[in-house]
Amino acid sequence: MKYNPNEIEAKWQKYWADNKTFAAKNNSDKPKHYVLDMFPYPSGAGLHVGHPLGYIASDVYSRFKRHQGFNVLHPMGYDSFGLPAEQYAIQTGQRPEDTTRVNIDGGVDKEGNQIAGYRKQLDKIGFSFDWDREVRTSNPDYYKHTQWIFIQLFNSWYNKDSDKAEDISTLIALFEEEGNANVNAVCDDTIEGFSAAEWNAFAKEQQEKILLQYRLTYLAETEVNWCPGLGTVLANDEIVNGVSERGGYPVVRKKMTQWSMRISAYAERLLQGLNDIDWSESIKESQRNWIGKSVGAMVTFNLKDHSEVIDVFTTRPDTIFGVTFMTLAPEHELVAKITTAEQKEAVEAYIEKTAKRSERERMADVKTISGVFTGAYAEHPFTKEAIPVWIGDYVLAGYGTGAVMAVPCGDERDYAFANFFKGENGMPEIKNIIDKDISEAAFGGKEGFQLVNSDFLNGMGYKDGTQKVIAELEKINQGYGKVNYRLRDAVFSRQRYWGEPFPVYYVNGLPQMIDAKHLPIILPEVEKYLPTEDGLPPLGNSIKWAWNTLTNDVDFNEKIDNKTIFPLELNTMPGWAGSSWYWMRYMDATNENEFASAAALKYWESVDLYIGGSEHATGHLLYSRFWNKFLKDKGFAPTEEPFKKLINQGMILGNSAKIRRYNINLDGKTFVFVSANNQPEMKTALEGGCYLQFENENQISEVNGEKINEIGAQVIHVNIKLINEITNELDIEKFINDPLYSEYKNSIFIGENGEIITNNSDKIFVSREVEKMSKSKYNVVTPDDICEEYGADTLRLYEMFLGPLEQAKPWNTAGISGVFGFLKKLWRLYFDENGLIVNNDEPTKDNLKSLHKTIKKVSEDIESFSFNTSVSQFMICVNELSTQNCHSRAILEPLTIVISSYAPHIAEELWSALGHEGSIATVAFPKFEAAHLVESDKEYPVSFNGKMRFTINLPLDLTKEQIEEIVMKDERTQKQLDGRTPNKVIIVPGKIINLVG
Fold it and tell me: 294-485 is classed in which CATH architecture?
């Protein structure tokens, strides 16, 4: 009976779907275990073999936990709002919801492209997902709850005294009773004080404006990353090297009124929470750096000839007497006010230039020094000396206060800046207040120095100096001690169509929340997905996008009267909105009234294991933790942290094929291709006595005797489907007939031996290079192709076998056949050509040893996520059992269970063939019995004068005397001694036997 993976896998995938084999229960006597994958964005390109790596690992773990008796929740869904779908809609005129649906479910898009569909691709690989809980963030029944969470954030403030979010009504009550003087809240820095009487006398609109300064989500004018090419604001993690990650469009800094999330309120809790979760240290460190806790002081510098002041946060208040100049961010609001007429032109030119650089680029570029003197001067709080005020793009408006008190003697960047502009107007000599030589470099240490030239701080070090200066600043009301965080509030608006609509309408320019019972507010139909002609976001193209407060429904714009019908918010939420809480929706995915019931949340609590890419180290993971903590404060989430354990899978890299191409016009032939293995001769003969002269393997210098400028080789990617994966030989016929390479039909191909290839006279080879798997590099291998040829179990085992889960590793299709051969060998333990050959024979000691080694190894490997070594052990075990000619049910039945987490389809088929009803999925995992690994005998090396001559197998419980007696009587010993008597017999039980003399 032959192993037929396609037939077996289709059969069992249908069985699992029909019987809902992997449906988790929200009330079970079993212990729970929640295993989650970072859900994918469903692009039209579909899955390549790199995508399922983490999914296979989580699936192996989930299946193992079911065998251990856990009630496992292992769901899957789609992060289906995103810029790519919108960009595709703009280019092709297709509705994003249509293309997204086709990308998930499969079918033909408007352009006639056949789309495999994520769901079908995932099903082919045999994942044990609970598909009854599938979520799609772009479905109204999902984003209804995202809108609801937004409303909760709007109606909340952060109370520093209770260290948690509270309902805005409690803040209003405080204002009504005692004003805001004693309110200890996370809020805007510009809030003015008011009494209870003043609050109660304020008009409703004024009260709403004040509350916006306290709410956890709020409207504010913010410096943002504006991408004109995409027509939207981008987060820092959506920008790479100063351009948008999607499309590579330029990004500029610009002020816009945006919704923001007050994530900064949770900075300390986000920092401390890292101590309580099982994540890699590198991910934790990334988050610590992003949060960026600093302890120091806030110092106020008055401005000469201006009523405004410059507030500066510094971690080194002890160096205040070394302030030589000040630097403001180019976008700082004071710049326009304080710049003198003489400096205005230079300052404005510099601001325009720096607006084209992203914050990330400015932070990373530590080599470029640039800046402009504003012409203004600040006043030192103690000495009253004039301090020149500069602008420089190494200072960012959103970090600290957007201002730096520059102390060049104690900071390398300030030192470089001061030296770069040395001698220019507005740059004084560096003040040295440290008893160290700074002629070559700044001294930035906090230990091993004393302060000098520092008035009342002379002779002090960092700690004493810091405490003293803070006390003195507080006395003159120009500073105080402060803890600061680099983490800034997150911009939460996008000027695009394909995202969650805000449940917000505007009355007199102030935001009002739509009552939760009227949710969802569904995206309207629009003709164009581009901004309007007057620059409004794409939702401005809708003719029906107004809120009727009488009917509580969306109405036509023409009816807006600002009395009962009001304009709706035109921005949409960012991509991270839906992904910041999705794991909770899986707990109760069909609940129409709540995002999840209290009972479901209490039962599942949080994710036990989360697997995904390290590219989400700060963005998604930080936002998710923030929303989870907020929902915990509001009494919804049961735990402080959403993900107990996090594992980042490495990337599977593609094995690209490349070939050298020369652009040359010779007898109507434009291109010459040269074999990768060929080091060309000085001349390569062509037809009719023509030849090419090669300078070296990368350059042609002469054609038919005519000297030419060196023609350099261009390396182009070749579709890996056009080569032999084992030999790397290019199929020229397929290559020139492929539509992708049709321009190369009349090319010259120089083969392995340096001769022109005619009628397969020679071979031409490509070179291989490990790169990121990408359609543009033509190195994509789809799981569908592998499953079709070898089966899903082969794909699953091979991906786990490639190497440690967390490391990047190259894909090599050539290795697939070995794993497929292993599965066929496993099959032959159970079947021959006539059918089942499993018997009831008593297993031998060797049989039991092979089995229990495997049980032990696989159990330990899965718990430690060392999946690659499990696959090795399976191969060892099957080889041993084959050698032992083992067909015993007592061995093969438990082996089927052990391997089922990795290769579930073949395991189900074998389990059924062994006479069992139902699925193997929840059968108890075999128990490891150590007794079967205890050696009862030993293969001793027998040596004569230290040289091993033969081996002898003896029971381990023999005494020295018994061992000596047996060895001396052995005929091989007698032959070696040849009548002699050894001087000494050395025996170490369990180790060696050595006869000396």
Answer: Alpha-Beta Complex (3.90)
- Report the C-alpha gap between 674 and 686 in whole angstroms: 13
Question: Could you give the CA distance from residue 820 to residue 554 in angstroms, rounded to a whole number?
Answer: 58
Q: What is the pLDDT of residues 312-343, one digit of tens each?
A: 999 999 999 999 999 999 999 999 999 999 99
- In angstroms, the CA 316 to CA 333 distance is 24
Structure tokens at 808: 């990047």
Read off the DSSP letter of residue 547. Answer: E
Query: Which residues make up the CATH 3.90.740.10 domain(s) of the chain?
Result: 294-485
The residues, any chain, with a CB within 8 Å of residue 65's CB and separated by 6 or more, are: 33, 35, 72
Q: For residue 275, give every residue at least 6 positions away whose Cβ sits within 8 Å of its Cβ, in sequence order, or none.
A: none
Which residue is it, tokens 């006639």? 112
Element housing 657 (H / E): strand 652-666
Name the residue among 17, 57, 29 with its Cα closest to residue 870: 57
> Which one-letter amino acid corresponds to residue 445?
G
CA 384 to chain centre: 50
Taking CA atoms, 437 is separated from 318, 320, 410, 420, 433, in Å, by 18, 18, 11, 19, 10
Distances (CA, A) of 937 to 851, 854, 907, 948, 989: 19, 21, 34, 19, 11
How many angstroms separate the CA atoms of 575 and 147, rounded?
13
Cβ atoms within 10 Å, residue 517: 7
Strand 325-328 relative to strand 386-391, pairing? parallel
| Residue 803, CA distances (Å) to 656, 665, 818, 863 in order | 19, 47, 15, 16
Model pTM score: 0.86
Look over the chain and give the mean of its residue pLDDT values, rounded to a whole number.
92
**Residue of 640, 544, 26 whose CA lies nearest to 273:** 640
CB atoms within 10 A of CB 737: 12
- Cross-strand bridge partners of residue 928: none
H or E, element range at 856: helix 845-863
Burial 690-707 (b: 16+ CB within 10 A, else e): ebbbbeeebebebbeeee
pLDDT band at 682 (very low <50, low <70, confident <90, very high): very low
Q: Which two tokens stand for residue 119?
A: 């769901």
Binding residues: 775
- Tens-digit pLDDT profile for residues 382-418: 999 999 999 999 998 877 799 999 999 999 999 999 9
Q: Which residues make up the CATH 3.40.50.620 domain(s) of the chain?
A: 31-137+576-648
Cα gap 59→35, rounded to integer Å: 8
Please classify residue 979 by burial: count the beta carbons closer than 10 Å to its beta carbon, then call 0-12 exposed, 13-18 middle and 19+ buried.
exposed
Query: 935-996 maps to which CATH number?
Result: 3.10.20.590
pLDDT tens digits, one per residue of 858-873: 999 999 999 999 999 9
Residue 170, SS3 per DSSP: helix
Query: 813-932 belongs to which CATH class?
Result: mainly alpha
- Where is the binding site for ATP, in residues? 775
Give start-end residues of each CATH 3.10.20.590 domain in the chain: 935-996
Alpha helix (H) ranges present in 115-203? 118-124, 140-154, 168-178, 196-201
Which CATH superfamily, name and number, covers 31-137+576-648? Answer: HUPs (3.40.50.620)
Please name the residue ranges forming H helices in 68-203.
Answer: 83-92, 96-105, 118-124, 140-154, 168-178, 196-201
Every domain range in the chain assigned CATH 1.10.730.10: 813-932
Residue 266, φ and ψ in degrees, nearest 5: -100, 10
Is the bond into 42 cis (omega within 30 degrees of 0)? no
Cα 595 from Cα 513, distance rounded (Å): 18
pLDDT at 237: 65
855 and 898 in contact (C-beta within 8 Å)? yes
